[in-house]
């Protein structure tokens, strides 16, 4: 992706902390103007000031939205489109790892709503503004690699567990991202999903890992800056121009969960997801 006179525009979710801040800063350093979608105005403003401390001329808009809400997600998309008729890059980074099963005001299980439904709804809403060179980057997780999924109970109304809910949402995201990649091939817009690695962020550190286990694993964890490198590769690398439907780890294509190749299962998941999207 090269920078024309008019800067390319990127939309980034979950950019107020963790790898999202570093992704946003890396894009600003590469010449992108940015829209950050954030739930908290103060944290979003801090992120903007943090980015502009390094990239003083960065153009950064902030849209406030709770991305566990489909209504707010779609309203955010409408606000973005009114200000930016062209979206060159969408990074769906926002995620949730909840200790308790929560249900949103719209009646969706919150982990699934944040990690799966919102990225899909935002992507669908912004797609009309994306050119043939557009890229969509979904932030996934290796927790999906061994996950199992029941299309009849995506929201885990039965046997809910924090790790299971998170892994299932990321597996469903992987499935739906691959489907979307195939659908968009004729348009040229690419969709790739990235596992950033084990990163020392709050979602990992406070995600139910035993303190002793964290003491062992934590020393091998990536910093948020390091964790942002594979997502930035997916966003920016000329090597990935036109390549779509990839699952990336450490800047390389990785083998996904075998369930993503089960067409009948994926079709059932897609039907369930479509129903939940409303």
UniProtKB/TrEMBL annotation:
Keywords: Oxidoreductase. It comes from the Bacteria. GO terms for molecular function: oxidoreductase activity. Pfam families: adh_short. InterPro entries: NAD(P)-bd_dom_sf, SDR_fam. Belongs to the short-chain dehydrogenases/reductases (SDR) family. This is SDR family NAD(P)-dependent oxidoreductase.
